[in-house]
Design goal:
The protein has about 70 residues and is an all-alpha fold. The protein is about 70% helix and about 0% strand.
Length: about 70
């Protein structure tokens, strides 16, 4: 089923449910979303490896350490 048709089918059926059941559906969807991967995959970040100078890395490290005090 194509995405648009799927969405229409879900909404059509959702509209027929009482509000308390619609709330349950919303909570279920929220729970499903928690299981989705978060952030950017490491494979996409590899291009940035080695692009920060040692000097800047040291400055960042020091700033983090200062912030933890």
């Amino acid at each position: 089923m194509k995405q648009n048709a799927l969405r229409k089918a879900i909404v059509s059926r959702l509209d027929k449910l009482p509000i308390d059941r619609q709330q349950q559906v919303l909570e279920f969807v929220k729970a499903l979303m928690l299981s989705l991967p978060q952030g950017t995959p490491a494979s996409e970040l590899k291009i940035f490896a080695g692009t920060i100078s040692r000097k800047n890395l040291k400055l960042m490290s020091e700033a983090i350490e200062d912030g933890m005090k």
